[in-house]
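So, is this right?
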Amino acid sequence: MADGLNSIVRRVPSSASVLTSQTTTSTSYTNLTTTGPSVTVTTGASALVMFGASLSSNTTDAGVFMSVDVSSATTIAANDDWAVWLGGVPSGNASHMGMAKLFTTLTAGSNVFTAKYRTSSGTATYANRHLMVIPF
């Protein structure tokens, strides 16, 4: 797997899931009891990240967020700009939602992509969490 001038480097997609239902009351991005899902992928400068989960809240109109951060060769914090977001619904109503984000400012090498979670108020619940990374 050389990485020189005029060479082709094989990039391997990776995915992970966490199916258990878990909660948070954090208003800033955090891990749930079971961290992730998380995948480690060798990337170039770009990667397409797809993620989703079943989201709900015990508080009517609360915002429930799932985002992704990047660590290791690159450091990018989870952010609302590319979050799956559920809001404006009665408490207890779950919705399965997904998002795709193309990261184009990665440092080539081994990068770790990890799902992170937050709520605007109350207790947010997440189940059937999925993450897939396609490196470029």
